[in-house]
Amino acid sequence: MVVAAMSVLAILVTEFTYVAQVNSRMAYDGLDQVRAHYTAKTGLKISLLRLKAFQQVQALVANMTGGAGGAASSLVPKQALNRIWSFPLIFPIPTEIPGLLPSQKEELKKFADSSTLAGNFTAVIESESGKFNINSVLEGYTSSALAPKTSASASPSSTPRTPGAATPSASPSVNPSASPSAVASFNPVEARENFQSLIQSIYDQKAESDPDFADQHRDFRVEDFTDSLFSYIDRTYEKRNSSVQEFVPPKHAPMYSLSELHQIAPLDDELFDLFAPSLTAGLTSGVNINTLQEPTLRALFPKMTQEEAKEFFEFRDSQTEDNHFKTEKDFFAYLAKSTSYYTESQLAEVKKELGAKGIRFIVDENVFRITVSAQVNQARRTLEAWVLMNDPKAEREAAAASSRTNGSASTRQETASGLKITFMRSL
């Protein structure tokens, strides 16, 4: 009986100890999750601070040089200004960087130890306007939806609100010297054709350079993919190919995230990784000439040869000269001078076609995506935020005008920061 009692007690003690250890581990894991979340929020706030610094420095340079395109604007290259936000931020700051002195490494170590920040994080800020808006095939979600209003009669309520887009009252600051593209009535057929040509161009370039990829996806048809995509996001679109199996019912609404592309047949993970870098679900005020990549350029100007596209990027991204375009006019002047097909008369027609597709060009970035990945022990947390950069002065004036119209006082004109998080999610 004594031995039996001791055995039962041993089992009970072992079980109680195990349960206590599990509960303790769960508590510590939960604490690490909370710490990882707030570490990611810290990285997000630092990223917003970098964007605010970029905005203020940009405004200061514009005042000193007489505005963009001024005689002295080349004294401060756009590449130098963009480095304020473009390089990734890693914390703790690596000390194994070539060229650092031992004293500098010691200071960085002291700073990391005194910060009391748990774990580590990586914060990346990306330009969204250099990508193609996947929702631009819908009327009201094109680049012109965030274009500056030229008439007082323009109703702000006509601007849709989607994740990654601004509210109607927050019109983005666009450089006055960057004249907008010709505004034309939206043509959904041309917008769909334009998007399909972009996807086809990306696919063809990959297939030509990678025979294994071409063989593996030889049955993939861009027409079937875009047909399923248009049916998924557009309730007015009638699907043409009913033989393609749909994994989920059509949403009949704009996409809020590119992750929704995984629900479109017949797209697999490899194709998603191919198309996603050139696309965005956020509403932007235009295609940024100074950040767009080759697939987008070739889709917008299909008559441009591969050699001309290569020369374009070598010219724009020169490390020795500031060749970033100051205005849209400079961009079209370059095309007329450096391409064989796009003469001035051809470019006039291209502008009309792009206007019908709802596409306009900008030279200054005002829509950013911040991605912060934080880790504390084994806990990981990722935050994504889409940020719209406005002119604080314009925000205050808009708020004051709104208060006068509505007959009520507005406090936003006192706290306008120029930065607005339009959409954020935690992964």
Report what the structure shows.
By secondary structure, the chain is of the alpha/beta class. It folds into two domains: 30-128 and 366-426, no CATH class; 134-149 and 183-362, no CATH class. Helices cover 45% and strands 11% of the residues. It has a five-stranded antiparallel beta sheet with strand order 1-2-7-8-9, covered by helices on one side. Strands 3-4 form a two-stranded parallel sheet. β7 and β8 (379-389) form a beta hairpin. α1 runs antiparallel to α2 and α4 packs antiparallel against α6. It starts with a helix and ends with a strand.
What distance lies between the first and last C-alpha atoms, to the nearest angstrom?
56 Å
Q: Extract low-pLDDT stretches.
A: 68-72, 148-183, 409-415
Largest sheet: 5 strands, antiparallel
What shape does the CA trace take? globular
Q: Please, how many domains? A: 2
Mean pLDDT: 79
The radius of gyration over CA amounts to 26 Å
Count of alpha/pi helices = 13
Oligomer: single chain
Strand arrangement in the largest pleated sheet: 1-2-7-8-9
Q: What order do the SSEs take from the amino end to the carboxyl end, as H and E?
A: HHEHEEHHHHEEHHHHEEEHHE
Strand content: 5-15%
Portion of residues in helices?
Answer: 40-55%
Task: Outline the secondary-structure elements.
Elements: H1 2-64, H2 78-86, E1 89-91, H3 102-114, E2 120-127, E3 132-133, H4 188-209, H5 211-216, H6 222-233, H7 269-275, E4 279-280, E5 287-288, H8 294-300, H9 306-316, H10 328-338, H11 344-356, E6 361-362, E7 367-376, E8 379-389, H12 392-406, H13 412-415, E9 419-426
